[in-house]
């Protein structure tokens, strides 16, 4: 049995995990796929870097 089960390891899930480990280490995270958000890994953030670099040229 776990004190807390977090479903999803995107932005909200990781934030919930960071807060929860302050109180317990008896956690379960259920996630299908890579951790972190698509935005940070391959979506918004990398494209913003490319667009910013292109705009400076």
What is this entry, summarized?
It comes from Acinetobacter baumannii. GO terms for molecular function: flavin adenine dinucleotide binding; NAD(P)H dehydrogenase (quinone) activity. By secondary structure, the protein is α+β, with helices and mostly antiparallel strands.
Integer tally of domains: 1
Biggest sheet: strand arrangement: 1-2
Rg over CA atoms, rounded to whole Å, is 16 Å
Principal-axis shape: elongated
Give the termini separation: 56 Å
Percent helix, as a range, is 40-55%
Count of β-strands: 2
Averaged pLDDT: 83
Low-confidence stretches: none
Taking the sheet with the most strands, its summary is: 2 strands, parallel
How many H/I helices?
A: 3
Structural class computed from helices and strand pairing: alpha+beta
- The SSE string, one letter per element, is EHEHH
The portion of residues forming beta strands comes to 5-15%
GO molecular function, one term: NAD(P)H dehydrogenase (quinone) activity
Domain FAD/NAD(P)-binding: 2-55
Protein name: Dihydrolipoyl dehydrogenase
InterPro entries: FAD/NAD-bd_sf, FAD/NAD-binding_dom
Task: Walk me through this protein's architecture.
With 57 residues, the protein is an alpha+beta fold. It has one domain. Helix content is 47%, strand content 14%. It contains 3 helices and 2 strands. A two-stranded parallel ribbon has the order 1-2. Strand 1, helix 1 and strand 2 form a beta-alpha-beta unit. The longest helix is centred in the C-terminal third of the chain and has 13 residues. The chain is elongated, with a radius of gyration of 16 Å. InterPro entries: FAD/NAD-bd_sf, FAD/NAD-binding_dom. GO terms for molecular function: flavin adenine dinucleotide binding; NAD(P)H dehydrogenase (quinone) activity. This is Dihydrolipoyl dehydrogenase. It holds the Pfam family Pyr_redox_2. It comes from Acinetobacter baumannii.
